[in-house]
Amino acid sequence: MANHLHRHPAISGIDGLTWHEALSKESHFFSGGLGRHSGASSAAIYRSYFPTVLQRWWVERVKRAGKWLCFDACPVIACLDFTADRLAAISPNAKLIFMMRDPVQGAFSAEIMMRNLGVPLSWSWTEDVAAGDTRFAESPDDVATLPPGAALPEDLNQRLYFSPYGLLRCGHYADRIAPFLRHFKRENMMFIDFADFTSNTEGVVREVLQFVGADPSLMPFKALPPGMQGERRGRQMHPSCKRKLRLHFAEPNQRLYALLGRDFGWGSDVVRSAYVTAGGTAALALPGSQKGKDEAVGHQQQGGKEVSIAAVAGGTKSVPLAAMV
């Protein structure tokens, strides 16, 4: 998506590291890219990641391409709960675009990317599941309520990039979105299924441009090579590990479906929701809710077609993954 956005004359990305695709679009400002004491809540410092105001003059006055927009396509923004507060303080009207994929695939893709970057991991999803497997052990989360301006934990990068549970935690989408729903307007959030992006890239890109206020007609669509294609180099997730991860994400996925009002079908071969027939109200109760009252998930038969439904107290809500500021 970042590569497509870069092609629009009114949109700029960060001035990142050009030697790797991910680092050319991700600031890692909120996760300590400038050091744990760098003040990952300073608007001025964050602004330094982006092109100068001279670029705005060029875009708006010379090229007349519309309002100049900048984006930071860093997924870590949504993986750390404290970033919602800090991002809102810096750019309260930011448009947030969250692209989600099957968390099992996401966990394996993250491992492959880090290994290809030379990160020395002591574990792998390619290995068989063993008794007492520490890859699935939860670790304490003591950064969720980190005060604005506070120094980042010294071992934050260790938790994010070296710990398998750090990757799993990022895939608990319903939990990760909660802080953003508290700090940003729902109309400033857009939620995309990665599968939709890969199957209908042009349509999704145009929807994104319209959402952020960029004129789609100024950027004729061009098919681009898939990002980081072939990075797996024949490596495959171990079948037992895949089954374990499917079970691990089953309940978090159901909570996400309830929040979004949409069943993505991730791991449907492992876990099935309760069924709701026409006129019925049977539901699968979710943790922290009153069965059939606060949150309910089910499937309804309509015209012979199974349709995913969800009811959430207070209306539908959704999930984050990248920030457009």
From TrEMBL:
Entry keyword Hydrolase: no
Pfam families recorded: Sulfotransfer_1
Span of domain Sulfotransferase: 90-215
Domain of life from the UniProt record: Eukaryota
Keyword Transferase: yes
Family matches, as InterPro entries: NST/OST, P-loop_NTPase, Sulfotransferase_dom
GO molecular function: sulfotransferase activity
Class of enzymatic activity (EC top level): transferase
Gene3D superfamilies reported in the protein's UniProt record: P-loop containing nucleotide triphosphate hydrolases (3.40.50.300)
Binding of 3'-phosphoadenylyl sulfate, residues: R101, S109
EC nos: 2.8.2.-
Keywords: Glycoprotein, Transferase
Matching PANTHER family: BIFUNCTIONAL HEPARAN SULFATE N-DEACETYLASE_N-SULFOTRANSFERASE, HEPARAN SULFATE SULFOTRANSFERASE
Family per record: Belongs to the sulfotransferase 1 family.
Name under which the protein is recorded: Sulfotransferase
The species this protein was found in: Chlorella vulgaris
